[in-house]
Amino acid sequence: MIVTIDGPVASGKTSVARAVAAELSWFCLLSGYLYRGVTYGLQYHLSYNEDQLKNPREKDITAIIAMLQYEYINNSVTVTLHHDNITALLKSPTIDQMVSYISKVPFVRQQLVVLQRHLLQLHENALAEGRDCGTTVFPQADLKIFLTADAQVRAARWQHDQAKNGINLPIGECLKSITDRDMQDTHRACSPLTVAAHAVVIDSSNKTFAETVQTVVSMIKVNRSYHNN
Fold first, then answer.
1. Are residues 35 and 118 in the same domain?
2. Whose CA is closest to 17, among 35, 5, 8, 31?
3. Angle at CA 108, nearest 5°, toward 105 and 114?
4. Domain identity same for 19 and 45
5. Domain count of the chain?
6. Does residue 131 lie within any of the structural domains?
7. Whose CA is closest to 3, among 29, 36, 34, 25?
8. Burial tier of 182 (Cβ tally within 10 Å: 0-12, 13-18, 19+)
9. Do residues 43 and 22 share a domain?
10. Could you tell me if 114 and 165 lie in one domain?
11. What is the domain-level CATH number for residue 112?
12. Per-residue buried b or exposed e for 63-95, using 16+ beta carbons within 10 Å of the residue's own CB
């Protein structure tokens, strides 16, 4: 069974996907790590500067993806590049900024669709989390969820996450970052963020994290029961 969870930045989809996968003992594909891995590889393995990241060469993209490995074991993500564990380096402010360039590149998205589909072929039950999992990567998914929340709520969540990394930002700046990213994601030419056909929209603005997780778990169990009967 394949379940996709898409949604805008700071909607909580990554944390929810991890928690749901842990409760169900499923494989979890957090697609953002792949885009960050490609960004890291181009920047630090091939010495790309900011301008080059906006227009990377296809042969370099192919080379980096060939060296990239993604594992999800015991509810923990490990991303390696040429056998080096780069997981802890993928959430840096620099990668946060630069990954938006890479995510717009059609060839990157095309190649990572192939990789994502390959990863899920190896597992009987899996969650795929991202921005185009239900629309582009796994349009045949058994259950598609679009997780969202009010922009102010997402800004506060993002502010909290940044503070945990030692970065203290005013809420106004966080809100601008959220809305700017929403604009980029929904208006990009290749695989824009949108609600997939037949997706279930969950607004977590007034839900606790635990309530959101249990809502998703319940939907999955109902869906499995329906298809097993």
1. yes
2. 5
3. 145
4. no
5. 2
6. yes
7. 29
8. middle
9. no
10. no
11. 3.40.50.300
12. bbbeebebebeeeebebebeeeebbebbeeeeb
Domain residues for the domain of 53 are 30-122
Report if residue 16 sits inside a domain.
Answer: yes
What pLDDT is recorded for position 96? 87
CB within 8 A of 123, min separation 6: which ones? Answer: 26, 27
What tens-digit pLDDT sequence spans the chain (229 residues)? Answer: 999 999 999 999 999 999 999 999 999 999 999 999 999 999 999 999 999 999 999 999 999 999 999 999 999 999 999 999 999 999 888 998 899 899 999 999 999 999 999 999 999 999 999 999 999 999 999 999 999 999 999 999 999 988 987 889 999 999 999 999 899 899 988 999 999 999 999 999 999 999 999 999 999 999 887 666 5
Does some domain include residue 12? yes
Q: Is residue 152 part of a domain?
A: yes
Structure confidence at residue 166 (pLDDT):
85
What distance in Å separates the CA atoms of residue 216 and residue 202, rounded to the nearest whole number?
9
pLDDT at 164: 87
How many angstroms from the chain centroid is the CA of residue 157? 16
Rounded to 10 degrees, the C-alpha dihedral 119/123/125/127 comes to: -20
